Amino acid sequence: MRLLLSVALLSSVLQLCSAAPVRENLNCAEVNNATAGHLAIHHINENHDHGYKFKIDEVTEVDLKMVDNGCDIELQLLLKETACHTISPRDFEECPERSLGERAVVANCSVLITVKDNDAKVTKYDCETRQESPAAAAVLCLIILLEGELWSWSLLDQVLLKTFLNEDSFSV
Q1: Is 166 inside any structural domain?
Q2: Could you tell me if residue 163 is inside a domain?
Q3: Tens-digit pLDDT profile for residues 124-153
Q4: Number of domains comprising the chain
Q5: What are phi and psi of 81, to 5 degrees?
Q6: Structural domain of 64
Q7: Which residues, 6+ apart, have CB-to-CB distance to 132 below 8 Å?
Q8: 116 in a domain, yes or no?
Q9: What is the rounded end-to-end Cα distance, in angstroms, of the chain?
Q10: What pLDDT is stored for residue 160 in this prediction?
């Protein structure tokens, strides 16, 4: 029994270690958006304790400010939710994105990375989350219905009415 427990514990530790990011050097001389974004998303996912892990959809803004012995890098990120729960040992990069039909969440994040003596750390982040647009989900439903020839004007009325009234769900 102890052997089984030891093997289970060892495999859990190995999975956690394998999920750790391989960090490229982030320096003040030349900021690599992908490297800065990678450091930021790992930090966000490590500190996100509910729901699903995120992936970067886009790095929208990067601002570099030189400070004593280093620099501050401010990032604006657009994130999309993945299908992997936060407790999953899988790395977020291996996880598929959640679809509109799964009521996926998107996030707009401001991240501050401080680089001092060639050591980069996320020192602050703030994310605003929201569900992807119900209007986009309604359009997707209409496209599926048109392709499947399940079309009716009453269905269109119902979808449009519910969408514009900002109701989260509708029945087909």
Answers
A1: no
A2: no
A3: 999 998 887 666 656 666 666 666 555 555
A4: 1
A5: -75, 145
A6: 23-144
A7: 100, 103, 104, 105, 106
A8: yes
A9: 52
A10: 58
Residue type, 168: D
96: three-class secondary structure by DSSP:
coil
Do residues 82 and 95 lie in contact, with contact meaning Cβ atoms separated by under 8 Å? yes
CATH number for the domain spanning 55: value is 3.10.450.10
Confirm if 80 and 6 have CB atoms less than 8 A apart.
no
pLDDT at 69: 86
Sole residue written with tokens 């291996």: 94
Neighbours of 127 (CB within 10 A): 14
Whole-number Å distance between alpha carbons of 72 and 63 = 8
Whole-model pTM? Answer: 0.65
- What average pLDDT does range 94-103 have in this prediction? 79
Q: What are phi and psi of 117, to 5 degrees?
A: 50, 45
Cα–Cα distance between 78 and 59 in angstroms, integer? Answer: 6
> Considering the domain boundaries, does residue 47 fall inside one?
yes
For residue 137, the 8-state DSSP code is H
Averaged pLDDT, 50-69: 91
Query: Residue 7: is its pLDDT beyond 70?
Result: no
* 108: region left, alpha or beta (phi > 0 left; psi from -120 to 50 alpha): beta
